[in-house]
Amino acid sequence: MRLLLVSDEESAYLWDYYVPGRLDGYDAILSAGDLKASYLSFLVTMGKAPVYYIHGNHDGYYDKEPPEGCISLEDKIIKVGNLRVLGLGGSRAYNHGPYQYTEKEMEKRIRKLKIQLLWHKGVDVVVSHAPAAGCGDMDTQAHRGFEAFWPLIRKYKPKYWVYGHTHKSYGANPQRVIERDGTVFINACERYVLDIPDPKEN
User: Fold this and answer.
1) Where are the domains of the chain?
2) Rounded to whole angstroms, how far apart are CA atoms 162 and 16?
3) pLDDT tens-digit map of 53-90
4) How many angstroms separate the CA atoms of 183 and 153, rounded?
5) N or C end: fewer C-beta atoms under 10 angstroms in the chain?
6) What residues does 6 pair with on adjacent strands?
7) Mean of the per-residue pLDDT values for the chain?
8) C-alpha to C-alpha distance for 74 and 55, rounded to whole angstroms
9) How far apart are CA 43 and CA 68, in angstroms?
10) Using CA of residue 179, residue 181, residue 183, residue 188, what is the dihedral sign?
11) What is the pTM of this model?
């Protein structure tokens, strides 16, 4: 499968300077948050692939104006082809804004996924806005990753973990790909193309 991963910064290449055909060839588009709803609607309209999204910490307005034609992944597992894809939006709590969570709140969200994880016999790809702690995060309260993600990673061993939130406009110089404990972590800032084998039916 060929996946287009996007987050945080709208791609001028795909939007302002779009030419027909640039969105061809993708099986799905996964958004890791903090992108304009109109941008995601553009991607699903001009492309031939479904767009799946989670909320970033700046996406509170999605509740009233969600990206048209796109599918929310928030707190659920959805089959994308034969891939089991899970969405966990939001960032660490830092100013009481929408889609911000304490470690305990994120742990509770993950516990609620137990039945879905059992039903689907695990997960192949996780899409989160914030990174896992110590794996692509930054040393500020708003941009620290979640420790709560690690039990999920160690137990279910997703092949890929897609995230955003840490990007150049915040002074970060993100490492695109980090491999740890058998999981490949990918910073989806702006755009990233991921080619992966389509697994057999789970």
Assistant:
1) 2-195
2) 25
3) 999 887 888 988 999 999 999 999 999 999 999 999 99
4) 8
5) C
6) 31
7) 92
8) 7
9) 10
10) negative
11) 0.93
Task: Extract the tokens encoding 109.
Answer: 């969200």
31/80 Cα distance (integer angstroms): 14
pLDDT per residue over 29-47, tens digit each?
999 999 999 999 999 999 9
The 3 state secondary structure assigned to the chain is: CEEEEECCCCCCCCCCCCCCCCCCCCCEEEECCCCCHHHHHHHHHHCCCCEEECCCCCCHHHHCCCCCCCEECECCEEEECCEEEEEECCEECCCCCCCEECHHHHHHHHHCCHHHHHHCCCCCEEEECCCECCECCCCCHHHCCECCHHHHHHHHCCCEEEECCCCHHHCCCCCCEEEECCEEEEECCCCEEEECCCCCCC
Strand partners, 5: 30, 192
The topology under which CATH files domain 2-195 is Purple Acid Phosphatase; chain A, domain 2 (3.60.21)
The pairing of strands 183-187 and 177-180 is antiparallel
